[in-house]
Task: structure prediction
Amino acid sequence: MRPYDERLDQLLSRAAKVFADQGYHSTTMRDLAAVTGMSLAGMYYYVRGKEELLHRIQERCFTRVLAGAERALEGVGRGHGDPVERLQAFIRHHVTFFAAHMAEMKVLSHEANSLTGERQRKVNAIKRRYVDLLEGLLRDVAPDETAVERSAAAYALFGMMNWIYNWYDPAGEIDPERLAGLIARVFIGGFVDARSPSPVHGG
Amino acid sequence: MRPYDERLDQLLSRAAKVFADQGYHSTTMRDLAAVTGMSLAGMYYYVRGKEELLHRIQERCFTRVLAGAERALEGVGRGHGDPVERLQAFIRHHVTFFAAHMAEMKVLSHEANSLTGERQRKVNAIKRRYVDLLEGLLRDVAPDETAVERSAAAYALFGMMNWIYNWYDPAGEIDPERLAGLIARVFIGGFVDARSPSPVHGG
DNA sequence: GCATAGTTCGAACGATCGTTCGAAATTGTA
DNA sequence: TACAATTTCGAACGATCGTTCGAACTATGC
Result:
């Protein structure tokens, strides 16, 4: 059964690339058949349909991100390391993983609402765990902040990191490590270090 | 306003709401007919087709954002005001405008690549001007930074601000002004103050 | 009344989509 | 070789999409 798994993996990877380029809804099963070299009907031997294709791409990718983040955090002390260093590790892992798997991560970010019913629910469950992971890190790093403000800050950070599929070129002038450093510096410098009590606008 | 223009405006607004909820590609002209109360064929009296509908929504919205930002910057000194204050004004305007026009701004952010050909080009031209506007502000605020790093920082900021369509509820616990303040604080504290320590502002 | 321009819509068209199905081809096993 | 399981695919189906067209309705001026 080894050639079967390889073929399925290749189908998922190439489909992810097309989904990332053209978008999920405007990609046809015929497009995927052309890219994979299979026939239109042949793909249905590996996958129940188009939506399961998207689901398996997202679930596979999201599981890897989550596992990778947890592994990256273990490297800087499970629960007793320096909170700021752990947050840094989380950011660096997310950004470098994103840069290394642009297609899948774009599909994960941009097609977050293209699944329906149970499939949508399953992916959202992983997302919940991932968001909780970051919010836990923010609790350790800014314990005096309100939970609401920490949650907003978490999404602001995710915004910086996930938005890169709209502009970033991993082969361009900025290598992934440097981008991760920039985002980490901005967020940590702005949310953690700069505990300036003065509000932004007069109030 | 003539009844024709009112009807067209209503069509664009309601279509924007449906595009924001369901996505552009999975919205059918029949969906829009149901929401606007018009017949399927009736909409083609106001618009050449589905893509022109998206184009007019995006162009109308983007033009307003750009004009609003320029107006907001005039309020804090055209080219001789405090650079940090002008950046703050830009951020606050973008975020509060986003919160006040969630549907249109989500369509602008999420369907940025759903247009084709000349229409795509036209919207991108406005986007270019808008991005240039922010990069100019960053030049005034961090003149020692490299252009590449400033550009990346600009997109990081846009990421924080545009991502809010994925999570933010303007009627929730965080009002738009507070969200704008949080994002401005994070970005300015992390990108500006962290590398060029200056006296406290805003107090 | 008539004529004109502006506005609406039912009905249908052609195209394209995701999916199915039975058969053909291939591989594995004895 | 023969036979079964696995894998592939041509061809077509039904559904749904964006769009079109000509007729019908409305409002206004004469």
